[in-house]
């Protein structure tokens, strides 16, 4: 089913009506050639999604009736992927796949070994494109939330940004054993926030790992093989997605909670 995101003001839940404006109108009229009566999903891109029926298709707006609240497809914890800026189009792949796997926000990070240097103008265009990729991946994968890709942060700013996150991991290929990873993943519960900091192609400098550890990041191993930068974050997201979706999250009494639906 086609999925559209609108501003909260365009959703009048009292009147059970939604108004779609902007480029989506042309898409609905002329590209999808939809007709009144067809059903669509419309959300606020944050926490609400509705199953709607199109009522009217005018040149500049489409109105739809809300039929029901749609299922929430979001993971119960917020995962922030801090990604050392990679070369070429790898970042686009990372964003697309991270959104499919349930990431909450992606933060591109400039590290000592980041090769790409973006000037302000280029960066603005790049960030806009990354957000467009996040939106289309969110639509495609049925996300209620459209994850944000923030502007590029330098390493120190990224660490400061992560300060309040409950669980912080820095996958590091020189870390040994899986205990630290298992322990960090075990701390991720519904309602918590997690930061995952991945190095670019060249990895992190030892000093960067030390600095991250000094502000609460735990170095974790992702196994005995070296993963490419675009694989590492997706591996962590897959592990967290499994952990959060399967009910392998222990409740306060230490028992597995089936389902994990938030009360
Ligand atoms: N240049 C390094 C590897 C960098 S891989 C080398 O060749 O030795 C890019 C990033 O992926 C790393 O900074 C790290 O965050 C993550 N990574 C890759 N393999 C990993 C592993 N086995 N364990 C933990 N992190 C890993």
3D architecture notes:
The chain is of the alpha/beta class and 263 residues long. It folds into two domains: 3-69, Ribosomal Protein L25, Chain P, CATH 2.40.240.20; 78-258, Alpha/beta knot, CATH 3.40.1280. It is 32% helix and 24% strand. The protein is built from seven helices and 13 strands. The strands form two sheets. Strands 7, 8, 9, 10, 11, 12 and 13 form a seven-stranded parallel β-sheet that branches. The protein is elongated, with a radius of gyration of 20 Å. The protein starts with a strand and ends in an 18-residue tail after the last helix. The chain binds S-adenosyl-L-homocysteine (SAH).
Concise overview:
This protein is of the alpha/beta class and 263 residues long. It has helices at 23-31, 90-101, 120-141, 155-161, 179-186, 206-214, 229-245, and strands at residues 3-5, 11-12, 17-20, 39-43, 49-57, 62-69, 78-84, 105-110, 148-149, 153-154, 167-171, 193-198, 218-220. It is elongated and about 60 Å long.
Which structural traits does this protein have?
263 residues; alpha/beta; Ribosomal Protein L25, Chain P; 2 domains; 7 helices; 13 strands; binds S-adenosyl-L-homocysteine
